[in-house]
Amino acid sequence: MTETTRRDEIAAGLARVEAEIAEACRAAGRDRKELTLIAVTKTYPASDVRLLAGLGVTDVGENRDQEASAKARECADLNLSWHFVGQLQTNKARSVVRYADVVHSVDRPRLAEALGREAAGAGRRVTCLVQIALDDDPDRGGVRPAGAAALAEAIAGTEGLVLGGVMAVAPLGADPGRAFAKLREIAQEVREAHPGADVISAGMSGDMSQAIANGATHLRVGTALLGRRKPFVR
């Protein structure tokens, strides 16, 4: 596939996604400007990131440090905000804070401590979101709703970090609208204690409209923008 053909393919995907966002915003009585579209580029090459940037996309998401760090270096000349959206081990904190502007998947105090320590050491301030578990699948990460307030407090009190808000993934096989309504309630509770923490990261390729209807501010979209993923080759 030539670069021109791939650009046209991505442009068409972006147009479809933007049309869906616009329709969902109309239905919810919201302004499109309230939403940030994060292009999740995991398993896609850095050349796709460049094409997205050329089409006006400013926010890029990755979920593997090994892949993300290399891609961020290769695209360092682009004016992009990098979002780390995957599960994160504490031993990867030093690497992640070098390029990530936002970490969406903070689900335990120990991880917040590690990120804060490394961010402060690097002279950076990294925005962190509390990942909320909306189901009982431990492999998907997240703190139980009852623990959200305490974790938000821990992030807010950690040097080098900024509490941005909350994030969640809709449970598999469940109604995403109900899940995101619950996330919105938790987000409101966090915001009451921390007025600046107004981010609700929710919604992916298959459930953007439900997320927008329930107050999402950040959408994490990959497949709908870039096509079906290929297995990541190390």
Automatic annotation (TrEMBL):
InterPro entries: Ala_racemase_N, PLP-binding_barrel, PyrdxlP_homeostasis. SUPFAM superfamilies: PLP-binding barrel. It comes from the Bacteria. Keywords: Pyridoxal phosphate. Its cofactor is pyridoxal 5'-phosphate. NCBIfam families: YggS family pyridoxal phosphate-dependent enzyme. HAMAP family: PLP_homeostasis. This is Pyridoxal phosphate homeostasis protein. It comes from Streptosporangium becharense.
